[in-house]
Design goal:
49% of the residues lie in helices and 5% in strands. 38% of the residues are buried. The radius of gyration is 35 Å and the shape is elongated.
Length: 484
């Protein structure tokens, strides 16, 4: 009946007559010591020590694994989202690669190896048993997780786009030379030293390039005396005929060919110069991006709008070690000569730029807390799977009272499980159904024969153990009937 209603059913048993129920349930748990071979054969899980609390431990570890996977995914998807968007738009708008190949390799190392070590090694805590159970069709990525991914991703993108496009135009030390200025300052040098033209020819060619409007200067102005083509009258707007004369052909005008050759070399030199000038702002962008990931890795320790992001972080030595190693390697990449300029294509940053990078990264922390606060206090209360619920004696679990009526509003095996109601062959006392509540929501598992122990719906994650999550547990002992 419970399976028909979409519940995930777990059954405990040890006798031969428990075998059909063990086999029919989503998860069958047989006793390893007292259980018969038939029961063990039909079960999915064998409790080796015949201790019912072992089921609770399996639920705890299952939830820990499932939650850690979600933490890692939330962190990884944020990094992927930001890296993809900034790389695409940086290459399309402006022609600059915000993150080069080796920098992306380092980001990938942080995202995969470091992130997995830090977030997937969190030990289980008793708080996991206070979370609502996950359903049979629970999504791996929840709405709450998507919210944090998008908020943190948009914050990081704002920072990176600001550094990429705004800072070079605002802060003098990051200013970029525009093309007309570069052509004016470097045309003569390129013509003489790169192309090899004479000084007189270079002066004439650079005058055409910078003052006659081919491509810079105002060819329509009658006061363009700096243009060597100006003869007191209107300059022909056609570059070829303006340089070579109205009767010239394509084969008898050396100066036109010289102008085109110098422009070609100037374009190449300007591209290289712009890339060199962009190294410093891109170094700041790279450093700020890494610091955003370091702080967001800490934010990812809680995925359900909890405020306890930093709780017990000092006890996770692997997590602390990963953060310290990441910071140390980032400092080496930015500051070590040769490694920074020749391999990672970055410049050494001064202390002001380091403080700015760290401050921008630290902004992820208050933003995360603000997101959690708004989610919890505005727009009503949204109950999501994986959030905590409060469980007390004679209080509600999943909104239903525990005393004076059936558990979770349903009868077990056709009988009410309240107070001293008797089940077949067993007597369930109030203490047996109330004293120890693990998790909340849905039905409550009752284990007759195990006084003082009651286990409600629990979650193990997307594996076979997940089946223990959403169902009442009811088992016999010593050959009694196991039913659900």
């Amino acid at each position: 009946l419970l399976k028909q209603q979409g519940e995930v059913v777990a059954v405990t048993g040890d006798g031969t007559n428990d075998a059909p129920a063990l086999k029919e349930s989503d998860v069958g748990l047989a006793m390893g010591i007292a259980g018969t071979e038939v029961a063990k054969e039909a079960a999915d899980i064998i409790i080796l020590d015949d201790n019912f609390s072992s089921i609770v431990k399996s639920v705890l570890w299952g939830r820990a694994v499932f939650t850690n996977i979600r933490k890692f995914l939330m962190f990884q998807l944020t990094v992927n989202f930001v890296a993809l968007v900034i790389s695409f738009f940086g290459a399309v708008i402006g022609g600059q690669e915000p993150l080069n190949v080796l920098q992306l390799l380092w980001v990938n190392l942080i995202m995969d190896t470091m992130g997995a070590l830090a977030l997937a090694t969190e030990d289980p805590t008793p708080d996991l048993l206070l979370m609502k159970p996950y359903g049979r069709n629970e999504n791996l990525i929840t709405v709450t997780m998507w919210k944090h991914i998008l908020v943190q991703g948009c914050y990081q993108l704002f920072i990176l786009f600001f550094i990429l496009y705004a800072i070079p135009n605002i802060i003098p030390r990051y200013n970029l030379t525009d093309k007309p200025t570069y052509y004016l300052d470097n045309c003569y040098d390129v013509s003489v030293n790169t192309v090899g033209y004479s000084a007189s020819n270079s002066t004439y060619v650079c005058g055409i390039i910078n003052y006659c409007g081919f491509p810079y200067g105002d060819r329509f102005s009658q006061s363009s005396s700096s243009c060597p083509l100006y003869n007191g009258s209107f300059i022909n707007p056609n570059e070829f005929y303006a340089i070579c004369g109205a009767n010239a052909t394509g084969n008898d005008c050396d100066f036109y060919a010289m102008v085109r050759e110098v422009i070609k070399k100037l374009k190449s030199a300007y591209t290289d110069n712009r890339s060199d000038e962009y190294v410093r702002p891109l170094s700041l962008l790279f450093n700020a991006f890494i610091w955003c990931q370091i702080i967001n890795e800490i934010n990812a320790r809680r995925i359900a709008d909890e405020y306890t992001v930093y709780e017990n972080m000092h006890r996770n030595h692997i997590f602390i070690g990963v953060i310290l190693v990441t910071v140390a390697l980032q400092a080496v990449i930015i500051n070590v000569p040769g490694l920074n300029s020749k391999i990672f294509k970055v410049q050494k940053l001064d202390y002001k730029e380091w403080l700015a990078s760290i401050a921008l990264g630290m902004g992820s922390a208050p933003l995360s807390f603000l997101t959690r606060y708004l989610s919890r206090n505005l727009g009503g209360v949204v109950c999501l799977r994986g959030t905590r619920v409060q469980v007390h004696s004679n209080r509600t679990v999943s909104g239903r009272t525990m005393s004076g009526r059936s558990l979770s509003g349903r009868s077990l095996s056709g009988r009410s499980a309240a107070s001293s109601e008797k089940l077949p062959g067993k007597n369930v006392s109030p203490s047996g159904s109330i004293n120890r509540q693990i998790s909340g929501g849905g039905g409550v598992a009752v284990a007759p024969g195990y006084p003082g122990m009651s286990v409600s719906n629990a979650v193990l994650g997307p594996a076979n153990l997940n089946s223990i999550s959403n169902a009442p547990l009811l088992g016999g002992k010593g050959g009694g009937k196991g039913s659900s």
